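Appendix B, example 12.
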Amino acid sequence: MRWPWRGRAREIELTEELRAHLEMAIEQRIQRGESPAVARDNARREFGNTTHIAEVTREMWGGASWDAFVRDVRYAARGLRRSPTFTAVAVATFALGIGANTAMFTVVNGALLAPLPFPQPDRLVVLSHRPAAMKVGGPALTDLTFAQLRAMPSRAFESMATLHGRAMTLTGSGDAEQLSAAVVTANFMSTLGVSPAIGRGFTAAEEVPGNDHVVILSDQLWRERFAGAPSVLGTSITLDGTAYVVIGVTPPTFEMSYKAAVWIPLSERPNPKIGAFRPVIARLSPGTSIQAAKQELASAIARLPSTADEKPGTQITDVLPMVDMFVAKAGPSLWMFTGAVSFVLLIACANVANLLLIRASGRRHEIGVRAALGAGRTRIVRQLVTESALVACIGGAVGIVLARWGVRVLLATAPPGRIPRSEEITVDWRVLGAAFGVSLLAGLVCGMFPALASTRRDPREALTSSGRTIAGSGDRLRRVFVVAQLSLAIVLSTGAGLLLKSFARLRAVDPGFRTSGVVMFNVNLSQTAFPNATDIHAFGAQVIDRLRQIPGVESATMANVIPLAAPHVISGLRIDGISDVPKAYQVNKIVVAPAHFTTMGIRLFSGRDFDSRDNESSQPVTIISRSIAREFWPPDGRGAIGQRLTENSEDPQPGDWQTIVGIVDDVVEQGLTQGREHEQYFPLAQFRDMPFISNIRFVLRSSRTVQDLTPSMRAVVHELNPVVALRDIQSMDDVAAASTAGSRFETQLLTIFAALALLLASVGTYGVLAYDVAARTHELGVRVALGALSGDVVRVVVRRTLILVIPGLLIGQIGALGVTRVLQKSLFEVTPTDPATLLAVAGVLLLVALIAGLAPMRRATRIDPMTALRSE
């Protein structure tokens, strides 16, 4: 076996040995009386083909395959170096295709395929039992169902844990800061198999109210706020005005939902009247399958008292791998983009295959000579394929560099939370291996077809063929590749066109309020600082009054939720005097201060706004949206004024009824794609349910920007109460943009892929047309010599262009009709078979193809017939 590093030394030894034997043979013949010239000729004739002897000797050494491979690579490298234009174009084409695929695979690998960073992640699951009609949120259980399940013995589940997020204000160590907190059961981290980096976790005793004033800090907060000092353990920090003892710090890599900065034990007791849905994580017992766990969960839930009144078929019970909790929303989109970017690679491969065909046609004489000298077809094919594989590998190396940059750009431009586990996404060994494998496969596939096509001809024909026969060599295969490129480009362009049209219609949706000029911020009013609703009402009124005094502020208000900004609370409806209100009829419950509708730009159709008359001592009042009024008091809903309603309660008390005093426009609450919803508004001064009003949003209408208003808003709140921190300071325009950020991201990404596909397809079309014109120089020269005008030549080239484009258009349109159906869930008011989009894409691609043919067309009209005839 020859080792690569000894190859050159062995070759020198072999050459010297062969030369020595030949000189000995010549010397012996001279000693027998032959002249030196005759002796040299006879010795060489007797010695035979030295090249063949060297080949046989190498085979005896072993490693002949390696030697042949090395020679093929060297020959291919020399050939590529002699053709810099071809090499640059082919490498760039491969780099774009492989780079885009590598970047996309890097994201998919880190977000979807990589195991969760916990011990035995395959045993971590998420439990769910929720109404089938519930469209928002992910897998979850109500807190009551979780508490009952957790108390039952189980064979399938080793442990169960839950969490939910909340905002808490940190004070006492620098400026007041509002943090995201994760409220978890004591066994949450142990269920995941995680231990604090320093300190300890929660104990079961700390789930008891009164014992729950302990906290675990995130690694980031520990380092930023407490300088990473281990002495923080045992010290006290103030959250929402309450002292919490620090007992631990999470590992640096530990991160869950809510981007929690602090972790506190869950000590709340379930409220039987209000079912709060929360994600529940469980660790399966060893050897338990997900299917077995699902059966046990369904059986256990059927025995719970809290589910006794549920009707069959109204609930969905499921057990899902925990990774689904992270990727459920992003998974379909990422796989869709992976499919889209693979089309780009296929187009790149077809493009390079066409370049190789054209290059092989120019090397037909060389191939014929090699075949005539005894090289077999397999040997020549292997050499040509080695050349294409070398180009692909170089392109793959450049593509990996582009992919690293592309991944950073992709993560930076993606909306927050759109790509799950983004901190784990990196170019690792699996990505590098996949990139190398794709490069090698692409090179082999691209090189095989041109190599087989170019070696099919008889060597004598290749040696004697004239320029007039060039056009027929591989012509059909080149057309097939161009048609394939155009077809794939049409599919991608149609998808991008559908998303662009969908996004345009989404942006044109009227949300029912005016976003321009609206600025908001959020505050969390802890029960320690604000023990009752009266305190919150007073503080809110003071803040609103001070905000209105800021120069440039036209109006100010406050509300517990803002459209597009947060989940809403929904409940049923009961109307006095109307008994046929469906039980499933749901409305959004929103608590607002006076001037809310003026500040938000929501139209008041009838009645009045809330004002100072609506206080704790006055009759309860409410304002409803126009859709509710029209549905129950047709035709225009104005008859609703003065009517009474309440929540869907079996036994409402006299104080539960609210009188309708106004009707306002419906607004979009959850998202622009969800349409306008039913809303019921309550005056803040009459609302005393603390969980609804402790986290409040202040809203201003002003001609000034967010940046201009922020210092003044902070100063107002700080002067009134220095322990209250502002959070989520933003304009309503930003909120509206964030609500469409996912659609915008999908549209931009697919449009980039489609543009890349069109670029590659146009380059491929140009290459084939340019070669076609060059190959038919003699034919076109004869036409001009016989009297053909420039218009006649142009028609010939246009006809050749259309012969390429029309089949691609037809096949691409048929493919788009089927493939674009995967976009159904991403489209808004647009069907996957939208005729206008299909026609527009076809027109764009036809225009691109004609533009690609302009240069060859111009060259054809300038052919000198005498020059063309002499070149033959």
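The first strand starts at residue 124 and ends at 131. The two ends are 52 Å apart (CA to CA).
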